Each structure stands twice: as structure tokens, then as C-alpha cells.
């Protein structure tokens, strides 16, 4: 009826973001560079590696936020197109209901009713993804991300990763005395 396909499609769009390993890889490299900096605080090359790894991590935080936003926008767009198609079909059904019920009209009405059922399921599936399934996933991601950033900042005693909140998360920047 379209519901399962919509849920699978919507989850697939988010799964591709979650399955992306670049963020965790960049975090690992950043932590390794931070460890190296702790033991070689006067080495300019180590500072440069720390800065580069930190910027890569920050860039990946921003990239993942953008990918989540793009996934949501894609689902909203597909849902909107399905709604437009549903509205058009319902208008056509209303028009056909006033016509003489010839074999061709009855066949078209039956087909359109099946399509209405499928589109209704599709829209319902995308609504469930957007309203019930994804929000807890994004909330968990946001909480973990904020905890990681707070942990990094706490370990340096200053805000070396900062950002301002937005609809989809933070825009992060690397700064502070540790980054020089």
C-alpha cells in the first residue's frame, strides 16, 4: 500500500548518513593528534597536525549535519509530490463520479482508487519517518555530538570547538589557545 516502501526509503536516506564512517575516523585522528600534542607541546609539526585533524573533525561534524538536513528535505519533497498526485487523483475521481458509469470509467475509477490507497500509505509512511522515527535518532545524535564537543573542550579547559545552534545542529569552528 506504499507505507512500507516509504518507511524503507526514508530510513534508507538516514541510514546512509549514519553508516558514513568519515566522522568517526576524523574524531579518532583528532584524538590521536591531541594525544601527540599533549606529549609534544612545543613541536610545531605536531601543532599543525592537531590543527589539521581538528579542522577535519569540525568539517565532518558540519558535513554530517548537512547530510541529515538533505535527507529530511528529500523526504519532505517526495512526500509533497505524493500529496500533489493524491490531490490530482481525488479531483479526477470526483469528476468521474458525475459521469455515466461506462466500462472504461469504472476501470479508471478502480485504478485511481488503488492509487489513492497507495499514495495515502506512502504519505503516512513518510509522515511516520519524519515525525516518529527520525526525531529520537537525531536527538540522540545531537546529544552525543554535544557531549563529545563538551568533552573535548573540557579536556583543554577552553572552548576549542564552538558553534551556534541551528535547526539541524551546530556550525562548528575550531579555535582557542590550544589551536595555534
Strand percentage: 5-15%
**What is the tally of beta strands?**
2
Which sequence of strands runs across the widest sheet?
Answer: 1-2
Query: Count of helices?
Result: 4
Structure characterization notes:
This protein is mainly alpha-helical and 180 residues long. It has helices spanning 3-18, 22-39, 44-97, 103-156, and strands spanning 161-166, 169-174. It has a two-stranded antiparallel ribbon with strand order 1-2. Strand 1 and strand 2 (169-174) form a beta hairpin. Residues 165-170 have low confidence and may be disordered.
Please outline the helices and strands.
Elements: H1 3-18, H2 22-39, H3 44-97, H4 103-156, E1 161-166, E2 169-174
Notable traits:
two-stranded antiparallel ribbon; 7% strand; mainly alpha; 180 residues
Give a quick precis of the structure.
This protein is mainly alpha-helical. The protein is built from four helices and two strands, in the order ααααββ. It has helices at 3-18, 22-39, 44-97, 103-156, and strands at residues 161-166, 169-174.
Amino acid at each position: 500500500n506504499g507505507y512500507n516502501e516509504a518507511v524503507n526509503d526514508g530510513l534508507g536516506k538516514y541510514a546512509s548518513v549514519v553508516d558514513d564512517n568519515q566522522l568517526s575516523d576524523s574524531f579518532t585522528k583528532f584524538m590521536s593528534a591531541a594525544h601527540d600534542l599533549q606529549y609534544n607541546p612545543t613541536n610545531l609539526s605536531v601543532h599543525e597536525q592537531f590543527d589539521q585533524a581538528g579542522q577535519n573533525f569540525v568539517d565532518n561534524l558540519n558535513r554530517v549535519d548537512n547530510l541529515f538536513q538533505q535527507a529530511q528535505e528529500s523526504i519532505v519533497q517526495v512526500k509533497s509530490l505524493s500529496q500533489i498526485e493524491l490531490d490530482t487523483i481525488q479531483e479526477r475521481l470526483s469528476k468521474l463520479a458525475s459521469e455515466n458509469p461506462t466500462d472504461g470509467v469504472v476501470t479508471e475509477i478502480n485504478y485511481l482508487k488503488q492509487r489513492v490507497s497507495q499514495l495515502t500509505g506512502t504519505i503516512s509512511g513518510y509522515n511516520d519517518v519524519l515525525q516518529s522515527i527520525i526525531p529520537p535518532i537525531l536527538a540522540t545524535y545531537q546529544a552525543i555530538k554535544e557531549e563529545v564537543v563538551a568533552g573535548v573542550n573540557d579536556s583543554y579547559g577552553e572552548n576549542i570547538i564552538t558553534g551556534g545552534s541551528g535547526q539541524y545542529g551546530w556550525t562548528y569552528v575550531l579555535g582557542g589557545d590550544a589551536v595555534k
